[in-house]
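ok trying this again, last paste got cut off
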Amino acid sequence: NQSAFVGGVQMDEFAMAAFQYDNKNGDFQSNLVAKKSYFFFDDEYVMLGADIDSSLDQGVITTVENQKVVGGTGNLYLNDNTSSVSASVDTVVNGVKYAYISGYGSLVFPGKQTLTVKRAQSSGRVFSEIFFDHGIHPTNESYSYIILPLSTRAEGKAYSENPETEILSNTNEIQAVREKKLGITGIVFWKATSFAGITPSFPCTVMVKDTESGMRIALSDPTMK
C-alpha cells in the first residue's frame, strides 16, 4: 500500500478506523484506490467507502458479506422476501433496504441500494455472498451499509425504517457518521478541511460526543506523522 493513512481513534467502548488503499505503482498489477471507514457504536457497525477508482480492464467489487450458512440450509432474506439465489450464479437485486442471514444478523442499506448476491458451495459447505459491483473503470464510486450483529430479522427491518445512525458525509475528503442515540459523531478528515465546526490542521480521525458541559473530543493522526 502506498498510503500512510491507516488507523483510528477510540472513545470509551466506541471506536472508528479508516484506511486509504492506494496501490498505484505498487507490487500488484492494479491501480485501484479507495478510502474506507468503519464506525463501531453500541448496536451497529457503519461501513463507508468512497473515492473508488481504477482504470484497468478488471471488475471491482466490495464484499459486504461472505458468510457460511449456519446448518448449511439457513435462509437469506432481502427486504421481506426469501432470496431465490442459485448456487454460483450472480443475481443483481435492486432496491434492497435490509438483508437478513439466519443465525448471523442483519445488514441495512441506507436509501435502498443495488446488490449482487449468490449462494456458493465449497467442500460441502454453503456460503451466502453479498457484494457491490462497481464494474470496470469505476470513477469516484462509493458504498455504505450497516451491520447489526446477531440481530433478528424483525430488528433489521425496524432499524432500516428508523435508523439510529445518520451518514453525514461520504466523499473523498470527509467520511462522517452520527449515532443519534449516543450523541457521538465520528469523522475522518482525509484532508485538512472544515466539517461540523471542526477545522484540523492535518488529516486525522476524530470522535466527538455531546455532553452536558460541552463537547468531548478524541483525536488521532493515523499517518503517525
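PB: full thing came through this time. The radius of gyration is 18 Å.
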